[in-house]
Amino acid sequence: MESQIAALRHELDTIHTYDYVEGTVPAPLAPGESIAIVLETTLVDIGRPLELEAFFPPKGDYYDYFSFESADSVQKALDDLSSFLETEGPYDGLIAFSLGGALTATYLIREARRHPEKPLPFKCAIFLSGGAPLDPVALERGQVRLLDDAAAGNQALRGLPTVHIWGSNDELWGDRSETLYALCDPHERTKVLHEDGHAVPGARAKEALLRSVRAIRRTVGRVAIAG
């Protein structure tokens, strides 16, 4: 993830610092996942990248956050993320790519439902080709399925400023990024579409990169003004 958001980080202000959250479930090199978490603004970066062959050897050791085949695996990933935030936080925001977006969105929705009286653990969220969240209630029953609140018109992450960046040619998770966008507050969300696939805009896609940076800066700036 650090390699893939290098161009974004270069264009953003240098006052931001980043921590990175890694997966623990062994997996082949495959469509990515990633989470970064932001400090000062502090950001947490959560995930493992896609288009991975450009950055990593195919025979290396790689890890996912969880397995879609196991509700226990998802619950453990959520609990591990919660422990990480309690130990290393607080953070101002997060950057999450692909499966990292699904994990963090699921976590935020779970927290909002469990503790509606408490503020969410982040002031803003930036989703890069973000995956759709899983249903926290179904997970408690041992089932792994996507949350369908978007179809019902229920913004599950109401009040959270978000930026959603994904490719119009993302045949892998484009529909899931759209679902995640629909679940977020229509008054607080910003969408940036680029022409690539399941990837983060980089230096070779300068126009998309700069549009992404402007959207992130506006959102982070709003959060900073609001305190």
From TrEMBL:
Domain of life: Eukaryota
Keyword flag Hydrolase: yes
Organism: Aspergillus caelatus
Annotated ranges, domain Serine hydrolase: 3-204
Protein name (record): Serine hydrolase FSH
Gene Ontology biological process terms, A to Z: secondary metabolic process
GO (cellular component) term, any one: nucleus
Record keywords: Hydrolase
GO molecular function, one term: hydrolase activity
Signal peptide per UniProt: none
Keyword Hydrolase applies: yes
